[in-house]
Amino acid sequence: MNCFKKFIKVFLLALSIFFSSTSIYTQPAFNLELKLLDFISVPGLIFQYEDTIVIVGHGTDNYEYYFYDGFIAKFNNLGEMIINKFVPGDRENDYWTGFSNNVYDLDSVFVFLMDFFGYKTEIWTVDKKKLNISKKIKISDEVDPDRYFSGKEICQINDSLFAVLSQIAEIAPNSKFDNIQVSLVNIRNNDIKHYYFGITKINDIPGSIQWNGKKLIIGSIGHKRLASYDSENHAMIWEMDLEGDAVLKFMTPVDSLMHGIEEIVLDDHGNRIVASLKGFYYAQSSILGRYKWRPTVMQLDSNYYTDWKTPVGTLNYNSVNSICCLIPAVENDGYIAAGTISPFNYDEEDHPYFNAIQKGFLSKVDKNGKKMWDRIITVVDIDSLEYWHWIYDLEQSLDGGYIGCGFLNSGVIPGARSWLFKTDRHGCIVPGCHEEVSAIQLPPEEAHILIWPNPVRDWLYVFQKAEEQHIYHILDMNGRIIRRFEGSMADETLMIDVSGLKPGSYVLTVETASGKSGRKVFLMF
Known about the structure:
The chain is mainly β.
């Protein structure tokens, strides 16, 4: 009897491999599977240390939706949590966040920025092994009820000195305009110097800071409200020396519609690669004046002249595209932008409203500004077609790919949950997603989707190449529908939680709006 069971198991495994196109790829499988953290949380940054992955953010394990503690979590390369440290907050401190993206490896500690959402900002140094906080350096404790203070970004100048970029806003009636604050912090002796600058009669909203070896390079938004629904916005770049002298070096004209600077990457030749917060305006209708935004990656030379600028994200429907980060590609042949697509429609009075589905994206631009690829990433972990899914950070992985983190808010399960993911150097979660055709010619009904892994344990990844509505069903071997989900975008990877399925064989079916159909068999452990 045992031999018969083993034979059946081997037969089913062979059957699944025969039907699955993913079996033909010889690329190594990734160790990390997508993971959803089991507590309410929003991540701010992700990074690797040796053979572990660390995430920093805010969250809670007591399921109070509007109140979070800080957390630092460490995972192994399989995505299994090793350590999770909650740092208790209190209601006077409001939310804890960690959205500065930058982490620095200094001796035996990690150095990064933690912001208390408009209350105060601190530099934390954290022990690498056990994740214990060894030091907290408060950047500003002079905040009054009529003043908003928020830490934006941190960069390293030398082994002791760090620069922290912050926003200061007066929120009282008839208040002054926002200013940019740069704080030079010596983490050895806790000495801090604050410097302030900005443009008169414009709200200056900082976004990113980098050290080029001589000066600090700072990106910001210049925002001036004109009327209830109208404003002037400029993308601006400043240079500041260590004495606090700041000079405006770059500012877009009003009609450029470059909303502001979100990320700055400095290359080896001193050029500035800059990602705007929003980007170009694309008219949808000359009658209705509908629009959509795209983040833009642009290269400036050392004199701040524009070499090229390239939109990233997607234009396939009305959408507001936001960017969270920009990093060099692992091959050093371009840049990877990560962000979120927020599609919207119009009501009967032609007012825009956001759809219930928001998706993450990765885009690659080469060093000459040519768009190389887009990857759309969607997490579907519940039986619901309504979810808000955001990517918050992306970094190079130690094995030549990328690791990222984000959060998912389904609207069904209270609160948001963090998730982490891994891709290869092509931005593929499903191996081979960048290839036009497979190594073995597949029937037409099989060629437009890929699945991975097979067999599967917890998560099934489905990649669709075409920009077309796809309706998927997971069926058991008796033909009963177990799950239903949809995809609609080109180069989209759908991540499906199948951990609740019993071991055995299942069939994934797909129907498209143009009449294509397909089926793939996969095996559950």
